[in-house]
Write a structure and sequence with these properties.
about 575 residues; alpha/beta; Rossmann fold; eight-stranded mixed beta sheet; six-stranded parallel beta sheet; about 50% helix
Length: about 575
């Protein structure tokens, strides 16, 4: 079955990961704003495919793939039952995530049109094409929020027409429908319904008389017994409009009429159910501006200005006020969603990054041989010497928050006590940070010939590197979870990390060696101590592997869908890897 055929024959889920170079191939450690989040999305997508879904991943396009001239555009298959949909917006150049807001309106326009065409093929409404929209990071969250606003308005305008049909003037209804989401129908259906009915009443009457007249007219046209409805509406208006100016009193007038006629038209509350059914947005922030701002509170102003904390914080507030459910990838994020953004804990699902056991595993000596050859070529150190040595590994994107500079300083100090030890650091060469690290190595005799920058590491070398390494070290000062640390732990490679890596601090605090962020000597001491104690090194590796055995993408994804069903979302029954249905 092709990707297009499976789109029609499987239940559908949409994911959005908008910034960086998300795609079928993720240049982890090489491309700006690209890394753990993209790996998370791709791994989650593949797990959902195994559970019986077709998955569409929407990512910003219109500019070239990383390191290529080919433009990210159109649809790219991602296995048999998933695809990447590249969304134009914001021009033909890469945009860093702090500046990505300029592209979002254009992207929303494009996705709305794209999904509307899919809905026409499926003979359904646009909001029914995908069972959920799961957005990743604040920029994607804004896209999901704005799409839902538009689809909610479309549904509300359909309800409005049904509610006032035969009473409202046709030109009034058409005017609202032409405005679409600009009409505000999704959040003010009562006001618009009232305006529609009031427009058919004598405008020279006093406001309170117009209220009664509009309700009576609606009842007459819709064959509803008038009873006390008109009188009740007039009394409510008089009560609620006291002391208000003419503009606000007019709003109260329309809302009073609308509230009354909607209560008569929809006695069972079906309109609320219909609008709730549109709400399918699940937000996964991965990190939060509130947390990052706290971590950067003592940094120079020019650093903080570039991160645009105020803009990001307010985007996150807006998304958190509207999303149906939330995913927290770490305890720290869950706590801040609650304390800083007021999210109900009952709406949260804890979904830490899983580990792909086919990629992150113990590799045999034969499988590791090409990796040693790769490291020998990159470093100039003979393969035989590398095989006898202790190897420290770190890989992440080239970003100042990763503190690769501190890691080099700590290793330089440690190398004075450790013979036959090498440090290999992954991360792309496209940034100025890479050049600064090169200069640091070149100017320090303790690092020359012992510490090496690998740049972007191809996948067929990257995955076995976690198995080959004797120690994985990250001094990162900003992590949503710490996927690389989790991957190393799953393989059984001992860890030294900063206290700001949530995976270490929250999952394996006793098995990992945790050092205060920014403490160069602390990292030096931890490296020396572990590499000098083979028994401790082995024990920690075994414990880490045991503690991460449950971080499996399939199990986590199935539990995630079960949580959403408990929240009232209608999601098709998941299947296990053998294909048997598991409705929950």
């Amino acid at each position: 079955m092709s990707v297009q055929e499976s789109f029609f024959n499987r239940p559908r889920i949409a994911l959005i990961t908008n910034h960086g170079y998300g795609g079928v191939i993720v240049p982890v450690g090489g491309a700006p704003d690209t890394g753990g989040q993209n790996m998370y999305v791709n791994s989650m997508a593949q797990a959902l495919v195994q559970l019986g879904f077709h998955v569409s991943i929407f990512a910003r396009g219109g500019f070239p793939f990383f390191g290529l001239e080919k433009v990210r555009e159109g649809i790219e298959p991602f296995g048999d039952n998933a695809r990447y949909v590249y969304v134009p917006g914001g021009g033909d150049k890469f945009i860093r995530k702090e500046d990505i807001a300029v592209a979002l309106d254009e992207e929303v326009d494009w996705i709305e049109d794209f999904v509307s065409k899919e809905a026409a093929e499926l003979s359904c409404k646009p909001h029914q094409v995908y069972e959920i929209w799961n957005t990743h990071y604040w920029d994607a969250g804004v896209i999901g929020m704005l799409l839902e606003v538009r689809w909610m308005a479309r549904e509300a305008l359909g309800l409005l027409r049904k509610a006032v049909e035969g009473v409202a003037l046709e030109e009034t209804l058409r005017d609202f429908e032409m405005k679409g989401h600009w009409s505000g129908a999704a959040t003010s259906l009562e006001l618009l319904a009232g305006k529609c009915c009031l427009a058919a009443v004598d405008p020279t009457l006093k406001p309170v008389e117009r209220v009664g007249g509009a309700v009576r007219l609606w009842c007459e046209k819709r064959n509803e017994p008038i009873g006390n409805h008109g009188k009740q509406a007039m009394e409510e208006f008089e009560r609620n409009s006291k002391g208000l100016g003419p503009v606000t009193a007019t709003l109260v007038e329309a809302e009073t009429v609308g509230r009354k006629i909607l209560s008569l038209w929809d006695k069972d509350g079906n309109r609320r159910k219909a609008l709730a059914a549109v709400s399918r947005h699940v937000f996964t922030p991965h990190s939060l501006g509130l947390l990052k701002e706290e971590n950067f509170k003592d940094r120079p102003l020019d650093v903080k200005r570039a991160l645009k904390f105020c803009e990001r914080r307010n985007h996150e507030i807006a998304v958190c006020n509207t999303a149906r459910a939330f995913v927290a990838t770490s305890t720290e994020i869950a706590e801040r969603l609650r304390t800083g953004l007021g999210v109900d804990p009952g709406k949260m699902f804890f979904f830490p990054p899983g580990v792909d056991r086919k990629k992150f595993r113990k590799y045999s000596p034969g499988e590791l041989a090409p990796v040693y050859d790769y490291l020998a070529e990159k470093s100039g150190v003979h393969v035989d010497e590398l095989k006898k040595a202790k190897i420290i590994f770190e890989t992440s994107r080239m970003d100042r928050t990763k503190r690769k500079d501190l890691l080099l300083d700590a290793f330089a100090m440690a190398s004075e006590e450790l013979d036959g030890t090498f440090l290999f650091i992954g991360g792309g060469p496209e940034k100025e940070i890479f050049k600064q690290l090169e200069d640091k190595i070149r100017k320090d005799s303790r690092l020359m010939g012992k510490a090496f920058l690998l740049g972007f590491i191809p996948d067929h070398y990257l995955y076995p590197m976690f198995s080959l390494a004797d120690l994985f070290v990250t001094a990162s000062e900003m992590e949503g979870f710490g996927m690389s640390a989790a991957q190393a732990a799953a393989v059984g490679t001992p860890l030294v990390t900063s206290h700001l890596v949530p995976f270490s601090a929250q999952y394996v605090p006793d098995a990992a060696v945790i050092v205060r962020a920014g403490d160069t000597k602390g990292f030096r001491d931890a490296i020396v101590r572990l590499l000098s104690d083979a028994r401790d090194l082995e024990e920690r590796g075994r414990t880490l592997a045991e503690k991460t055995a449950g971080l499996d993408w399939i199990s986590l994804s199935r539990a995630f869908l079960g949580h959403l069903r408990m929240r009232g979302l209608e999601i098709s029954g998941a299947k296990d890897e053998q294909g048997s249905s598991r409705n929950r």
